[in-house]
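Hey,
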Amino acid sequence: MTQWTSLCAMHRFQSQRLGPRVALRFPEHGLYHDISWDTYRRQADQAAAGLIDLGIQPGDRVAILSENRFEWLIADHAILSAGAVDVPLHAPLAPAQVAYQVGHSESRGIVVSSQAQADKVFAVLDDLPLLEFLVSFEPVESRSDQIRVLSWDQLRHQLSGEALKATYQEVQRREAHLNTESLATIIYTSGTTGHPKGVMLTHGNLLCNAASTCEISFITIEDTLLSWLPYSHIYARCVDHYLTSIAGVTVALAESVDTLMSNLSEIQPHWLTSVPRVYEKVWNSVATLDEDTRNAALHTVFGPRIKQLTSGGAPLPRQIAEGFFAAGLPLLEGYGLTESSPVISFNSVEQYRIGSVGKALNDVDVRIADDGEILTRGPHVMRGYWKNEEATNETIEDGWLKTGDVGRLDEDGFLYITDRKKDLFVTSSGKNIAPAELERILCRDEYVDQAVVYGDGRQFVSALLVPDFAKLQTVADERNVELTSDEEFLTTPELLAFLEERVHTVMQQVSQPERVKKFLVLARPFQVSDGELTATLKVRRRHIIARYEEQLATLYESGGN
């Protein structure tokens, strides 16, 4: 456990201790600008006072709908210091999804980034009778007189003189009443079917998890972390936001995932937290080079100061981790979920085992149930699901959180993930299939970029494949054929035959009933905007299968791919 009883106490202590040192670096108009720790804290206090002046009471919910930006981090601390609970929403959400999460959480206010995000809220105001105000980081034009609309600067500067001084005292009083059991946030899970569930995490959940992860990170006060993962997601929230505050390091914000490579060059960080998808793309760009050239290229990408890279949110292909380690770049995989705040286990530079997701953190218990499900217990386990006692009781039993993942522990305590329990399916012949492992095998082939396996109740296993289009184009050029499609799927016979041969080869490492026999090749990658990927670029298997199930069904009727 930590010396602090709340996230607010931690951040205030660190801000007073570190004062003029750089806390945040953010890009604007092509240049990076710095914010000191004392400025960070002062702006959070100003915004907290503004929220209290708007009538926010301890325990009230305030939503945040914004892309990553430094104001997001300040707004988070402001909401917490007002004694309120923040509800972070993923920036790509559609208006109806915004309406559900803001309405279900009974949020009284919402902080947005821009006109585009504000318009989502204005479009669904009739469904949000409890919403009283909207604050925007950028100036916006109000589309409604149903709620009060303020700019971020107006929120921070609406009080002055004695009124501001009195409200600052109220901020301190509210912070003093917070403890490890106080609710800090409600985070809605991605949800593959139906409405998402609101995960309730306390100040203690987040503090203890960030502190325990920090203990094995070997991060120092002189380090800089480059941050791009969405703060609305628990992994970035805990590691890029709270862990870095505990460690007192500088957080540099990337402009976006699209500019990540150029931002790496500009910032030259010591640390990068990311998801497998990013490392896969980097690896694919250098995989065909000889070892020495490849190693030099990897160091060029991540810069001369990089100490370690971390990966979470989805399985990391083993050969990529091995390749990075061989280049002298520790690529460390961890594991967790929103309901566990999120980190359950992580590899470290002192204790790692490639292929595993590391050992359990301090204060975290892990055991494997009789059916193979991973269970965890400790101060990191959520309070429960917001307004959903039934789901809470189904997920937490005798203090043990059911992760929904299947795995094993080796003799040294390293945890290995086999599959998602709920994603296991059974073919018509009675064979249990672990789709995630088959998808990992398929994606190890250099010509396969993404894969989703299908076959529940069917006579054999099939798949949806997304090729590496650049490499497939090279094959097409060599064979003097064109990439052709019928809008959704590639149809070039020569290239389908080429991929069929490669799939047949990689499938030799699994049993006959597990092998992918037929497949469809999509003419585009899976997209976040289409709901096919989560905010952290994980494939939403059930959503994708539901979308393409009719086309997949034809594979069981026809004789070819």
